Amino acid sequence: MVLLSGHVMPRQEGHIFMVDDDRCFGCAACLALCPVNALSLEGLLAVVQESSCTHCELCIPSCPVFALDIVEENRMVVLV
Ligand code: SF4
Ligand code: SF4
Which one of 8, 18, 22, 27 is at 20 to 30 Å from 41 when CA atoms are compared? Predict the structure, then answer.
């Protein structure tokens, strides 16, 4: 059993949690690990409620296709 209370990571200032929608295939492994239920599935895509995400990074190693990351907001590339 993992106790997470008392181990709340501060959010990483100027960073944002990202799901790579080209990689995610909706396996839900990350959802099971999030202690604050910030992740949910929309079809076969994991989506994050950024305001709930604590940037604890617990979910990131669970993704088999490396779709999760916490990146600097000003390094985000918007593809249109
Ligand atoms: S980084 Fe932590 S709080 Fe954010 S979605 Fe992943 S497990 Fe949840
Ligand atoms: S673990 Fe990775 S592939 Fe699975 S739902 Fe989460 S982001 Fe998508």
Answer: 8
Say how far apart CA 74 and CA 76 lie, in whole Å.
Answer: 5
Residue from 55, 62, 63 to probe ligand 1 pocket by mutation (most atoms less than 8 Å from CB): 55
53 token code pair: 């995400």
| CATH code of the domain in which 37 resides | 3.30.70.20
Residues within a 6 A CB radius of ligand 2: 19, 24-30, 46, 62-63, 65, 67-68
Q: Look at residue 11 and tell me if it is in a domain.
A: no
Predicted confidence (pLDDT) at residue 77 exceeds the cutoff of 80: no
- Is residue 66 in some structural domain? yes
Cα dihedral 11, 46, 18, 76 sign: negative
- Give the number of domains in the chain: 1
